[in-house]
Amino acid sequence: MKIKLFAISALVLLQLTAVEKASAEAYWFTNPIEKYGLIDKNARVILKPAFDHVEPFVSGFAIVNIGGAYASQSSEKYKGGKFGMVSAQGKIVIPVKYDALEDLSEGLAAFCLKGRCGFLSPSGQIVVQPKFESARAFSAGLAPVKGKTGWGYINKRGQFVIQPVFADAYSFSEGKAVVIEDKKYYYINTRGEKIFQDNYDYASFFYGGFAIVGRNGEQFVISSEGTPTGLKSPAEFSISNDLGSGIFLARKNGILGGLYNAVGNPLSPENILRNADPFRGDLSVVELGDASGTKITRDMMTRDGKLMVNRSCFRLEAITDDEYSATCKIPGSRLYEGGILDKSGAWKFSTRSYELGLPQGEYANLVPVLVRGRKLVVKTDGTVLAGHLGLTMDFPAIGATSFVQTRDYSEAIFYNFQGKEMYRVPAFQAFRLENGYSRFHRGGKWGYLDSRGAVAITPQFADVADFSEGYAVVRTEKGEPLVIINARGEEILRTDCAYISKVQNGKFGCTRSGKTTLMNLKGEKVVDEEFASLDEMSDGLRRAYKDKVMAGFVNDRGMWVIPANFHGVRPFSEGLAAAWQGKLCGYIGKNGQWVVQPAYAACYEFTSGYARVYNNKHWGIINRKGSVIVPFNFYDASDVYNNQVWLRAADSPTEEQREGYERTKEHAQWGLANLKGEWILKPMFWNVRDVSANQAVVEIDANTGRPVSGYMDREGRLVFVY
After folding, report:
1. What pTM was estimated for this model as a whole?
2. Cβ(19)–Cβ(400) under 8 Å?
């Protein structure tokens, strides 16, 4: 099975580290290059990161692998490389040399080496010699193995107790085992006797006194006596998950379903669940969504189908029977709220932050969160939120370690809860989230992370561009042609283009030999005309250069709407586009006529009805009629949102001077002002970027001390700072 790793939040692009509870004493964690190691409950490294894959601990032991891989991106099967086993104390008890290895069950672990399989003790000693073609776990004192004549069951001395006469055989569950003979499934007892008279086309193991079986295209549930209980599948209906206690998830059309009891009575609405976990206590973590899979959220559901959280949660994990770690979207906001929910669905503790770490296992009482750092997100009311997307910065990682990246980004340094350096690893590179995906670089190749920081497309490309409308442009190897892929990493179109713009409305600009053509995803020309350059679409129009000097706009069919009569243009925004006449710029409407006469040295897009412009000395703000709203008294200005603008004060040092200064309050001169030029936040910031309607990324005064991050307890108190 795949280990579930906890990223810092849905919107963090660097999957820096993760912790999975291994036992009462030890935890798996990963470093940025995705090697697994082991830490104890005091955050001390007891086994350095060395493994490519690990399994959860069972009875104090866990399987590890070096050199293997999942069969595919969606597969749960991990194969290849070599397998071994470690203890929760960090000791390699079974050398990493076997071709296959199963978890310990009844004190023995099935293994395979060079095509032969047997059983090992936890100390690595061979108890049953490798003389079988395949082997499965012991249960009820017996293990299914495959010999020359078929599958049978052996005891712990390696002797056949049930002769190898079956086409396949599985481990015992509740005193019964499924075997296959003549392509039919049936159940046997530990003496090898057939229990029920019925044969099935499919049969599951027994769980809580029930099993799911199939016959003649229909699924139904049977009791431990083999009697149908009443829950069965009509046409286009499937019983998929046994959640325990006689409750089942059943789906229609294989996509959406609901909860049913063993006699077939619905316990929840029928078509709301995509998945459901086995009940833990009185609750099951369920996945809700639509048939398309585009609107998936998670909630807690009771045995009678009641939802407890009722908010948009993208992550929900059971910590105990009474506590759940969660991250949920704040209604009407771009922010996420994360922390600990009780079993009623109410927050025991939460922090509104992009950079909230989720607690896990023994560390459920500690929540890693960025408190303040050199780079922050500041709301327009001055509230400090957290680190912003795509910026390399100092913030805590998940669980027992804290992460700091070196100034030159060459190394990542990990600290324990006492602030002591644990180890260093090479850092890797990632970019900000665009259209649901982030580019990232590892091992000399590029791939994509999804919006939760998980690997969506494994690194395999020499170069990649951002996704747009579910498509991205990649290059498989240096010197190879550009290729358009979909979100599953599948090739859609191989081109001979030297450059490809983002896909919009199924079309893109293809540049060859200095000329750009508008094409569709079949590789066909949309229009015969070629352009010197062709940009992305904005407000329904694409900026186009007829030659290297003159520019205008074309529509989605590649036809000129505004002729190339200008010495440069910016994309349209709010119905206006900056345009140049000679060295001066103003703004034109979609009819190509001047709305604001050219009078400025620099012009930017309109936001909220205002635009920032430069008069060759200072910056100011104008409205759509060209009237000056904020006078030209500032060294720099941001876009306007909510009638507020970030401004760099006129007494700020120049960029050349700033290069020689330490980052101190005296030289950090950005502040937030209203449209009268009055300060809301006085100039105190070294830099401002990524301004939006609700927030901006700023750099704070370094004289107040080193960047600070840490861990909060469930009441929101900072308990450890580094």
Report:
1. 0.50
2. yes
